[in-house]
Structure formats: structure tokens, C-alpha cells
Amino acid sequence: MTFVQFKGVVKKYDTKMSVNHLNLEIAQGEIFGLLGPNGAGKSTTIHLLAGLLAADAGEIMLDGYSVARNPIETKRRIGLVPQELAIYDMLSARENVTFFGQLYGLRGRLLKERVEEALAFAGLLDFGKEKPGTFSGGMKRRLNIACAIMHRPKLIIMDEPTVGIDPQSRNHILESVRQLNAMGSTVIYTSHYMEEVEAISTKIGIMDQGKLVAHGTKEELIRQAGLEERLMLETNRLTDEAIGEIRGHARVTFFQRREDSQLELVLQESQAYLQDILFVLSKHDLKLQKLTRVEPDLESLFLTLTGRSLRDRD
Ligand SMILES: Nc1ncnc2c1ncn2[C@@H]1O[C@H](COP(=O)(O)OP(=O)(O)OP(=O)(O)O)[C@@H](O)[C@H]1O
């Protein structure tokens, strides 16, 4: 079932299109990773969905409601974990979560239960009385998450939740995303870290310059782009004759000399034809020192789709 739908959505700042006729569908129950370099339009997209910005054109639907026409219904369904921390330093961790619960209309015993549940979920139960000013960056972010999820929203949106935090908190946050999803929430997660998106997403959307340039599971995306496994061969040395023979092999569709004694190849049906390459090496008295298979990843996909690296501006 389609849970989130963007139909021809446009958002401009002056003349610049931050979101450029975006069409996107997300099914209920997904962990949807929205991946793209800095400035691709990810934050603008999720701010539009959360109703924090108004679109210049197009329509956004959430759970059958229009974000523009039914803002109360749509906002109730969303827990937004923004990129900038939205917590109050003068309140304790517990008071912060309570405050957000009150904003969502929770009262009395239910409010108390949900506050404790959210603190426990964020691994902050022992720090409930403390003010976030003393917290590490990772703890502050976990508190931010506790505040956003305490009303058990159907849709949780996290904007770059792991930027600049320690590995332990990072793992905690990634594990929280999985748990929240297992408990029934659909999750939209923006990041420019492809490893993270690969690791936790059930579906991935790749954004560039305000547009969705690809959409699917990791495997679908890699297949669509026609990306293939590469072989890295490291030898003790190389000769021009050997290079000529390898490059000229009928099944070698990509060839690059990496360093003096390193070759990168795409070899079709490599199981059957690798022996030909090894034979060329031994014929020229060259020794193979290392052979690595490199699986295609989202980084190579992004490069293929846009001609640029995801990490250009990291
Ligand atoms: N308030 C604003 N005023 C003017 N331009 C803006 C504003 N907010 C965003 N933009 C521009 O819109 C484009 C998309 O920005 P956005 O923040 O959505 O990208 P992003 O993919 O989330 O990147 P980041 O990870 O850096 O936040 C960028 O070129 C940005 O400079």
C-alpha cells in the first residue's frame, strides 16, 4: 500500500529549484533511505512532507491525506527527527520528552508511561534527571529521537541522524531505526553515507539536484544501472605484451591500469574465463599476488547515474 506519495512536487528558493518536479512513492512498512550529496534537496523534501515548508507546485499525500489540505491529520502521523537538535538545554532529558508528549496531546499516566518508554528506547533512562548540556553529541541526538517518537507515529522521518557522532551512538541509532520499523513504523531516513543506507534500507531513493534519479532495492538499482563486479589483480610486475593480451581478451569489457602492477577489469562470465587471464600472466612469467572481487555499490551507481561522486563535498 502506498503510504507516502509526492506528485510533481516543486520547491524553489528564488529561481533555484531545490525540489524539481519530484515524483516518489513509499510503501507502508519500508525503511526508505533517501541518499544524495549535500545540497541534493533531501532536507527540503522531508520538510515539505512534514508540513514545515509549503510546495510551490504538486501534491504530497500521507496515509490518504493531503499534507497541504489536512495538516493536522498528517502531522499527527509524523515523528520528525531534524538535522539540527530540537531539545531544550534548560530542561532535563525527562522534561524534554514530557514536553514533546504534551505537544502531541498526551496526558496523565499514558504520558508518564510513554516518557519512560522513550527514554529507555534511547538508552537514556539513567540520565533522565540530567540536562542535555552535559551530554555527548550522540546522547543529544538519541534524546532528540526519544522526543520525536514518544507519540508512536506511523511515519518516522530522520534527517541525517548520524552526522558527527561517535560509533557507539551511531550503532544505537541504526539499531533504533530497525526496532521502530519492526514495531510498525514506516521510516524515511536521509543520509549521504551510502554504507549506512545500504545497511538498513529496504528501499533506496537517490536524489541529485532536486530530482529522484533512481529508486528501488539496492539490487534493483545496481541491475538497472548495468553495474558489474570488478576484478582487481595485483601482480609482481606487468609487461606491455601481457597488458595488450588481457585488454584484448574478448570477455574483458572494462580495463584500467590502476598502479604500476595493478589492473582493474570487468570480465564477463569470470568464473569460466578467469583462467585465461591467469594463463596470460604465467605465460609472461608474471606472478599474481592478490585477486579481489569488488561488488558494485551505491557509490559506483551514483557515479554512473550522475557522472559525479557522492562524496564530492563530504
Ligand atoms: N532556506 C533556504 N534558502 C535558500 N536556499 C536554500 C534554503 N534551503 C535550502 N536551500 C538550497 O536548496 C538546495 C537543497 O538543499 P537541501 O538542504 O534540501 O539539500 P540536502 O540534500 O538536504 O543537503 P544537506 O545534506 O546539505 O542538508 C541547496 O542548493 C540549498 O542551498
Automatic annotation (TrEMBL):
Domain ABC transporter: 4-234
Keyword Transport (UniProt): no
Keyword Ubl conjugation assigned: no
Keywords linked to the UniProt accession: ATP-binding, Nucleotide-binding
PROSITE patterns in the record: ABC_TRANSPORTER_1 (PS00211), ABC_TRANSPORTER_2 (PS50893)
Alphabetized GO MF terms: ATP binding
Domain of life according to the entry: Bacteria
The name this protein goes by in its record: ABC transporter ATP-binding protein
Organism from which the protein derives: Cohnella boryungensis
